[in-house]
Write a structure and sequence with these properties.
13 strands; 9-stranded mixed beta sheet; about 325 residues; about 25% helix; single chain
Length: about 325
């Protein structure tokens, strides 16, 4: 049989079901933003959730203030150097037990807010559309109004995922999600208070014995200094942020559902009081790591720009964190 005839015979043998399954795999890759690597493509058809024994990571990313492109660029470099596959999604509404099942590490790099009616293009106070939006009739549009996206069922899905022995890396502004889910806060371990504008501060390693901080030295960044409350054993705190000029959270901050420019201090969620009841000072809790059930959790508060994400000391720490979370060390 000639080669062309053989190819034609094989083509005739492809069923409609085969074509639909292949189309579904391509659609899944598009929805998840699968890394363009053979390992990641293979992972789509690997029921065990691992690619040849290699653990898989899912990143839920992107919010109003954090563009998905810079997050993807930052983390692609991290996972490339670790030789690990990574998938991305912005679909917060899909977070569930089913979504997490194929993975061994979940990274959440976004806050707790969505804006169903849209929002200003500027850094405006919540509730007012601005002239810079270019609207001829701004009065015809509803005011900005943020809503929380996470449900307690989704929070429990993260709880169960970690308890079963998997890893959870909560990055940058993700502690804000703890304001709106008791289950999420329980596994994440704390809650965000707020942050001042981007400015220089020092990150101090306060626990040098932990595997996540091995070989990591204190370093300076120009970033949002996120303040947070840690709910669990203080010995699990790894990092402090310190403004060397003595500036505090109150010197301009994001606290509430908008950007924190006045008004009442925010409710911090379940048992956390309000930001006004906390002593902020110039030093913040900026990172922690703890066991949760059979799994592990890490939170690091830095990460508003690629420059910060790729700071040599912080990049080293991110590598350590991923290895520890996946129990590779």
């Amino acid at each position: 049989m000639e080669g062309s005839d053989l190819q034609m015979t094989k083509a005739k043998g492809v069923s409609r079901r085969d074509l639909l399954q292949k189309a579904g795999a391509v659609a899944a890759a598009g929805a998840l933003g699968v890394s363009e690597t053979p390992a990641a493509i293979q992972a789509l058809n690997t029921p065990s959730g691992q690619t040849g024994g290699t653990p898989r990571t899912l990143v839920l990313m992107c919010d109003r203030y954090h563009n998905q492109d810079y997050i993807r660029v930052s983390l692609n470099r991290l996972f490339k150097e670790l030789s690990l596959p990574v998938d991305y999604t912005t679909n917060y509404y899909d977070l569930s037990k089913t979504l997490l099942e194929p993975y061994q590490l979940f990274i959440c790099f976004r806050d707790n807010m969505i804006w169903p009616d849209g929002y200003s293009s500027g850094s405006a106070d919540e509730g007012a559309r601005q002239p810079q939006d270019g609207l001829e009739n701004p009065g015809d549009f509803p005011p900005e109004k943020a809503e929380y996206w996470i449900t307690e069922e989704q929070g429990q899905a993260v709880q169960n995922f970690v308890s079963a022995g998997n890893g959870f890396y909560s990055m940058h502004n993700n502690a804000f999600v703890s304001r709106s889910s008791k289950n999420f806060r329980d596994v994440q371990g704390g809650v965000a208070l707020g942050h001042p504008p981007v400015r220089p501060f020092k990150v101090r390693v306060v626990n040098k014995e932990h595997p996540v901080t091995q070989g990591v030295e204190d370093f300076m960044v120009t970033d949002e200094q996120h303040y947070a409350i840690y709910d669990k054993d203080p010995k699990n705190i790894l990092l402090h942020g310190e403004n060397l000029d003595g500036l505090t959270l109150e010197n301009g901050s994001r606290q509430g559902a908008g950007r924190g420019r006045g008004g009442a201090p925010p409710d911090l969620g379940f048992g956390g009081g309000t930001a006004a009841s906390q002593d902020q000072g110039a030093t913040s809790v900026s990172g922690w790591a703890h066991e949760y059930g059979k799994g592990r959790v890490v939170f690091t508060a830095m990460g508003h720009t690629n420059d910060v994400m790729w700071h040599p000391e912080y990049f080293k720490m991110q590598k350590n964190a991923v290895r520890w979370l996946l129990k590779m060390t």
